[in-house]
Amino acid sequence: MNVILAPSQKALTPHLEIRGGRRLEGEIRVSGAKNSALVLMAACLLSSDDLKLRNMPALSDIQGMGEILESLGVTMNRGEGFVELNASGINQSSPPYELVNGLRASFFCIGPLLARTGVARVPLPGGCQIGARPVVEHVKGLKALGAQVTIEHGVVSAVVPGRGHRLTGGKIHLDCPSVGATETLMMAAALADGETTIDNAAQEPEVVDLAGLIIAMGGKVRGAGTPTITIVGMERLHGADYMVIPDRIEAGTLLLAGAITRSKLRITPLIPEHLGAVLSKLEEAGCTLESDGIGMTISADRVRAVDLRTQPFPGFPTDLQAPFMSLLATAEGTSVITEAIFENRLQHVAELQRMGAAIRTQGNTAFIEGVPFLSGAPVTGSDLRASAAMVLAGLAAEGTTLVQGLQHLDRGYDRLEEKLRSVGASIARHDVG
Ligand code: UD1
Questions:
Q1: How close is the Cα of 49 to the center of ligand 1, in Å?
Q2: How far is the CA of 27 from the centre of ligand 1 (A)?
Q3: Cβ(311)–Cβ(337) below 8 Å
Q4: Which domain range does residue 57 map to?
Q5: In what order do the strands lie in the sheet with 75-79?
Q6: What residues are paired with 241 via a beta bridge?
Q7: Residues 61 and 130 in one domain
Q8: How many CA atoms lie within 13 A of 411 on its CB side?
Q9: Any catalytic annotation for residue 44?
């Protein structure tokens, strides 16, 4: 017998059902930073001692990184909010493609693996929904430290020639301040012979967090958080017990949840310096922000249009561009957003339009004319941050929004719906259509 499905039930994958229009109230706790946690996990390869990382978020990307490290011979013990890693028994130089595929952060392994063992073969992570995401700068930097690098059949193979198989410190100038390249090269340089300087380095807080871990492991790093980072290579690094910084992108998303629902919410812990550009745009849009030293309270009533352009840190983060667009879709007036980091990161526009947003694009610029209300609809998040943007829009929309694409959301937001429910949102997860 053929079962005829109602249109709303057709081909629904796991989704969130959000009944919008509720005011939120209360406090939400921010988890550890995904982008820090991923690179800090890879840094376990730098030592044969135990590395304990605390404040770890529960995310599928973290799970994926753990599997990649285990495939290299790392032992791992995961508990509530922490992970213990030991890389004394590394027996592989090449993580398998099946694990690497889909997790760009897997490429982080190449730096520490090469530095510690003199050889690494890591499949190219490939592009993703938001852009091509090359690794040219990573490769150029590894070569400057003495590695021979070839790319064949989709695999980057790096070896350190010579008897000691040890990288040599050197001077690296990055053509663009790539976060991943800066982190890869910091890890490689941490065990190199001599001093390395990285010019035009990324200044993101996650880079500073990695420097903190390398120092906690006995390494020497200066200048992290500025455009010039100096690393003095050590013969060996020891273990450490280290706390991951709070996730600034999750914190920003949650502040936006307060703003888009015109509510009052406290988000904690939140380090204001990590979100400077976002906080000023929220204030420019008419939100009130109060920092209490640990957390930040946002109150929103009327929200005005603002213009913004994504930039490397300390500029406005590309990872909050889509979520901020959801807010501006409900603001008074016309906003202009320019995405200047990734070439294909406006895919959420079409989904927001389905919810009644008035947005027009020209190249990588979106012109957003605020509307009095969004209306609930079935929508799909095309990547991690686009999915978060859909959830935010759903919280504010009239009626019910069904957000699909949860495999993206679960990569980077630790129990988002649970956290939003705890402050009054009506949001439920359905695993099957
Ligand atoms: C990291 C973050 C990601 C964030 C991004 C930008 C992690 C795990 N991910 O990604 O969430 O959106 O920073 O803040 O930390 N580029 C080149 N050549 C290169 C490398 C990069 O041209 O060799 C370009 C990219 O195409 C892009 C820009 O530099 O336009 C930024 O990329 P990058 O900083 O490398 O981002 P990721 O480290 O991949």
A1: 30
A2: 32
A3: no
A4: 34-243
A5: 75-79, 82-86, 50-54, 240-243
A6: 52
A7: yes
A8: 21
A9: no
pLDDT tens digit sequence for 46-99: 999 999 999 999 999 999 999 999 999 999 999 999 999 999 999 999 999 888
**Residue 46 per-residue DSSP state:** G
Q: What's the pLDDT tens digit per position in 143-197? A: 999 999 999 998 999 999 988 899 999 999 999 999 999 999 999 999 999 999 9
Separation of alpha carbons 94 and 74, rounded Å? 13
**Which ligand 1 atom is nearest residue 176's CA?**
29
Cα separation of 220 and 212, whole Å? Answer: 10
Residues flanking ligand 1, CB < 6 Å: 35, 38, 104-105, 131, 133-138, 176, 178-181, 202, 206, 318-319, 341-342
> Looking at beta carbons, which pairs linking 375-379 to residues 24 or more positions away fall under 8 Å?
375/399, 376/18, 376/19, 376/20, 376/400, 376/401, 377/401, 377/402, 378/8, 378/12, 378/15, 378/402, 378/404, 379/351, 379/354, 379/355, 379/403, 379/404
The reply to whether 323 and 235 lie within a common domain is: no
- Residues 230, 94: one domain? yes
Name residue, tokens 């706390």: 243
Cα separation, 342 vs 329, in Å, equals 21
High-pLDDT (> 70) share of the chain, %:
97
- Predicted model pTM: 0.96
Residue nearest to atom 29 of ligand 1 (CA): 178
Dihedral sign, CA of 388, 287, 277, 421? negative
CA–centroid distance, residue 60 to ligand 1 (Å): 20
DSSP, residue by residue, 307-366: -EEB-STTSB-GGGHHHHHHHHTTSBSEEEEE--S-TT--THHHHHHHTT-EEEEETTEE
User: What is the 316 CA–ligand 1 centroid distance (Å)?
Assistant: 14
Cis ω before 95 (30° cut-off from 0): no
Q: Whose CA is nearest to atom 1 of ligand 1?
A: 179
Domain termination site, one of 200, 218, 243: 243
20-33: string of b/e by CB count within 10 Å (b at 16+)?
Answer: bbbebeeebbbbbb
Tokens read off for 12? 């629904």
- Annotated catalytic residue: which of 44, 109, 128, 287? 128
**Are the C-beta atoms of residues 165 and 192 closer than 8 Å to each other?**
no
Same-domain check for residues 128 and 169: yes
